[in-house]
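Weekly puzzle thread! Below is a chain. First person to post its structure in token form gets bragging rights.
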Amino acid sequence: MTSTDLPHPDRGGAGNPSAALVAGERGRVPTIGARLWILTAAAGLAAAAFTTAVALTNQPYFELLNRWIGAEEPITRGAIYSSYLLLIGLAIALWRPTAFGLGLGDSIRRWRLVLGAAAGMAALTAVVLLALPTTPYADASWVNEVVIVPFTEDLVFRAVLFSGLLIAMSRLHRPAVAASLAIGINALAFGLGHATNLFWLPASFVLPQVAYAIVIGLVAAFVMLKTRSAYPAMLVHAAVNAVVVAF
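Winning reply:
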């Protein structure tokens, strides 16, 4: 064997373990990246399935429970309807309240962000409603729409679902990407939850409602991310609903 037949450190081949190791690592990187995005997609589908299941079973729950209670007063009926989300949210969030955003977090320190988001969403909602002839919620109860609904919906969609998504995405991606993905998936899931209103309300109203629910979800999840609390997200949601009822 001549010197030209000896394996060179910079050449590949069976005689160069270092080159084989590098080649193997290069081949593994795309595989790992693909797996991370597959898991990300799976988390998104799980969020969609959770949202759809909750939304579709809420109405049967209400009808069954109200058949026994026989409530006629709007606030009571609204409380019964929202109690489903309350039970689901508390059953999960009370396991570790602070981890699920049921503490003040940085809400006080970031009060300008909280009030600015609430005021901005209220103003945007008013502009959007000016383009609509009417809404099914024009005569709705203030207590239901401004207090009960924001608390129970954000308990499930922000305290539980967004917190879960943030944890899952943080294990798959770097912090900035994880936060963006968690916010985006959560917003889409919130919009999907409103899409089930197609069973009871006209599509001409529900489709814009779904689109706007996604916007609300984006802002509410962002505010929760920055404050580490679900309560500011509830305030943003309450501000939007207050404008809807006022119109």
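Puzzle host: Confirmed. Bonus trivia for everyone else. The first helix runs from residue 17 to 69.
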